[in-house]
Specification:
By secondary structure, the chain is α/β, with parallel strands linked by helices. The protein is built from eight helices and 13 strands.
Length: 346
């Protein structure tokens, strides 16, 4: 296995040079199982364990490039360092903690996978698009199960109305229809992550692209709900040299981003807002509001604008919680230092 097939680049070569000088090898994280990892290297797939010196926040995730020390006589290595990430898909950790969770790293393209039927939800796709743009990767909307619908044109029109330049590709992982449209994103050394709800066919799509069953799949329930078949994130090499990253279905995607990222996923709202009379227009009651005018004229959907406001409120609230957390941590650090100084003997 050549490093170029895994996404190795000149930038990574430069970043790795100090590690090469002390006998470490480059490896890419194929999967991480809480602690132990699976590594893709020039020597094939080997096991990896993070070094004890790596802090919890610095532990590698699927897609990361790392510097590892091979253990003599074993197909194992100790991960000594994580190389700088080119892109990172992050989200807020579930529940109430205001903590960033890195889902995957060094992703070139995100296939935002939905399926015709109950799962095709424009509001959910807006959230995925926002997270994908924030990651630094390129989003592509893939709508699966086109063989199971008779209203593909109508459904696609609804998705294209919120895509704004993002490709929307109807496919069938079951029959292979439309898969040729994915080829431009699956070149040698390219890494593509599949994101979406359970049951949309992410694992089936990967199996079809690989040419054999490498991931388990399951039929949806009678109510049309997806069943979890993927329990961890894993890089799967394709015959053509690309890598696919399957991810568990997300019941909820809480954003971890700056409000400015909405400019990329809501270009229509931002465009109308730039024409408002007042620079600080709330788009709710001010005279000369171009956004309200666009809604009344039918040029901008009310639901689309409400979705924008919802995500804007969410990201602003996130910033407040981030600031509060930093302030709390700073206070704890001051108290710790104060206690330490009291224990100093002169």
């Amino acid at each position: 296995m050549q490093l170029e097939d895994l996404g190795w680049s000149a930038q990574l070569e430069d970043a790795f040079r100090p590690h090469a000088e002390v006998g470490l090898i480059p490896a890419r994280i194929a999967a991480r199982h809480h602690g132990p990892c699976e590594l893709l290297t020039e020597y094939g797939r080997i096991g990896g364990v993070p070094s004890g010196k790596l802090e919890r926040a610095a532990l590698p995730v699927a897609g990361d490039w790392v510097a590892a020390r091979r253990l003599e006589g074993e197909r194992k290595a100790v991960i000594e360092a994580v190389l700088p990430r080119r892109t990172a898909f992050t989200r807020k950790e579930a529940w109430r903690r205001t903590v960033e969770q890195v889902v995957a790293a060094n992703i070139d393209t995100f296939f935002l996978v939905a399926s015709f039927g109950q799962d095709l939800n424009a509001r959910r796709l807006e959230r995925y698009l926002t997270a994908a743009w924030d990651s630094g990767g390129t989003p592509v909307i893939v709508v699966n199960k086109c063989d199971l619908t008779e209203a593909a044109a109508e459904d696609l029109a609804e998705v294209e109305a919120i895509a704004f330049g993002v490709p929307v590709l109807p496919v069938s992982a079951a029959t292979g229809a439309g898969l040729e449209a994915l080829a431009p994103y699956l070149g040698r050394g390219q890494t593509v992550a599949l994101l979406g709800s359970s049951g949309v066919g992410k694992s089936t799509l990967i199996n079809r692209l690989v040419g054999r069953d490498v991931l388990p799949t399951a039929a949806t329930s009678k109510e049309g709900r997806g069943r979890h078949t993927t329990t961890n994130r894993e890089l799967v090499p394709l015959p053509g040299g690309a890598l696919l990253l399957d991810t568990p279905g997300m019941r909820e995607l809480q954003l971890w981003a700056d409000e400015s990222v909405l400019d990329a996923s809501f270009t229509d709202v931002v465009s109308h807002a730039s024409e408002c009379r007042f620079a600080d227009c709330s788009h709710l009651h001010e005279p000369g509001c171009a956004v309200r005018g666009a809604i009344e004229a039918g040029a901008l959907g009310e639901e689309r604008f409400e979705s924008y406001l919802k995500l804007q409120r969410e990201l602003r609230a996130l910033e407040v919680r981030k600031d509060a957390r930093l302030l709390s941590e700073a206070r704890k650090e001051r108290r710790r230092r104060s206690r330490s100084m009291k224990n100093v003997k002169y």
